[in-house]
Specification:
There is one protein chain. By secondary structure, the chain is α+β, with helices and mostly antiparallel strands. The protein has three domains: about 170 residues, FAD/NAD(P)-binding domain, CATH 3.50.50.60; about 160 residues, no CATH class; about 70 residues, no CATH class. The strands form five sheets. It has a seven-stranded mixed beta sheet with strand order 5-4-14-15-16-13-17. The protein has a six-stranded mixed beta sheet with strand order 7-2-1-11-20-19. The model has no long low-confidence stretch (mean pLDDT about 95).
Length: about 500
Amino acid sequence: MTDTPLRSIVVVGGGTAGWMSAAALAKAYGERIQIRLVESDDIGIIGVGEATVPHLKTFNDALGINEVDFVKAVQGTFKLGIQFRDWGRIGDEYIHGFGVIGHDYGMLPFHQYWLKLHAMGEGGDLGDYSIHTLAAPRGKFMTSASDVAPTSPLAHIAHAYHFDAGRYARFLRAYAEARGVVRTEGEIVGVELRPDDGFVEAIVLKSGERVTGDLYLDCSGFRGLLIEGALKTGYEDWSRWLPCDRAMAVPCAKVGAPTPYTRSTARAAGWQWRIPLQHRTGNGMVYSSAHMDDEEAARLLLANLDGAPLAEPRPLKFTTGKRRRVWNKNVVAIGLASGFMEPLESTSIFLIQTGIGRLVQLLPDRRMSPVVVERYNAQVAFEYERIRDFLVLHYKANQRPEAFWRDCAAMSIPDRLQENIDLFMDSGRFFRDGEEMFAIVSWVQVMIGQGFVPRGYHPAVDLVPDKELREFAASVRGVIHNCVEAMPRHEQFIARHYAAPAP
């Protein structure tokens, strides 16, 4: 038993990162560790996205949060994947869905058989073989059914959410405070470091109050008040691979039924997001300031809204990358304080979640063991780099004519990513590296969706007679089609079970 147990944790900053951290730590440790969150209502919260990946359901389930209560509280809708428009070429469209493609046959993944059919001029669209990618553009949605055969696609519908991030933070604040988290309102004006080892000793509020703790979570956003402002940790700049450095965000009035997918539309020098909620639609433009100025970005964004804008476009500047050490001394950076990657694949909240989960598993005592700290930093670096490479893939795999996109297609990319592309283009193969987030089903959908079709396929596919191959693919396609036909409309499903009160 350690004689230096952790007694207190101070969370610096609220928002999604701060309150997810406080809620999870309160659930994990209750009153055994004192948890205090310091935030100021005078400092705005940056929310670059309101879309998630399916992992958030696991986070909410671990906290014991009822999905119906959650979705109602955050004006949420559901998400089966991300629709990409105009990314490979202008006019192209595909969906990166959350579910499987077809089902394995023998020991090979389904897409290998599809590649042969495609080479034969048959097989249709790859998206026809996934319940997620077929249902989403048709506006169909339901959660996994428990009253069907375990082998039915309807029993395995992975889903994520669209939601109001500010409402989620408030929802988690109520959860955390009910479990003992103490919130302190105040602006931080100073940070005191211990003279002997440079650890954070206290944060000083504008009121003069000193707030002390054993471990500090920096959830202060891009400012990185502790991790960078006080500890001068340093930052890895990845803009040579992900050149967008600006964003504009604006909500607009809801028009029509909410789609069960996020939409990403490529523009001349970046891309535009669309995220439908129950009460409004979130929109934004991510772009390169070297190829488009702010005024043009705002004009283009406003010209492509579904409904009337509900505010002026809000500008945001960023540098894609991560802190050189996300855990430095007795400070762990969570959320935007740890780094930033554009919300192209809705990974921002996922990275908050995994940062918290990793901290729970590697919770230190007051000595801050270097072994624990180094393992945390190594895992964060691996996760960030693998997600970075997947995002770079979207830019690299394009055949658009504009200068921005030509630069992206021609740019040098990380060696590991180039190796993955080379292997996939050779024969449609991809090998997941450890616990990296994106698996083969994601690589297949993005590569093929953007026009990078492999030159060949696994040689074992030729061991299956062509007649058997055609019958197998037609059977899979038919089952998926019938399942989608049986699904309710997305808006009907929400109205029946998850309708939020008027805001």
